[in-house]
Amino acid sequence: MEHVWGGRVSAPFLPRGTWAHPRVPRRVARQCAGCGDLVPRRRTWCVTCATDPERIAARRHAWYLRHREAEIARTRAYAVSHRAERAAWGRAYYARHRAQLIAKSRATYARKREQRAA
Ligand SMILES: [Zn+2]
Fold first, then answer.
1. Which residues make up the environment of ion ligand 1, defined by Cβ < 5 Å?
2. 46 Cβ contact list (under 8 Å, min separation 6)
């Protein structure tokens, strides 16, 4: 290995007045999206906003209010497209629990009749 200028080993010092690379501007710290506190650049929320259940619930509710129409439309689209499936599931459920359901309705009927009589 030869220790000469321009060889495989780089020069130990740059010539006076030259820069190894252009200046890298420092990026400023970010602000928490919830409360505006300063947080590290790669973070969006501060620890409090990220872990406090009340704040998380408030954010979820705000998201729901923003996407309310879309969510309702999505639910309705599902109900419409799976209508037959859901009806079949209901019929199967009734068939499976038929005896139980009939007993329950009979009990309710009897209870109401007793209430009316009393
Ligand atoms: Zn915060």
1. 32, 34-35, 46, 49
2. 32, 34, 35, 37, 39
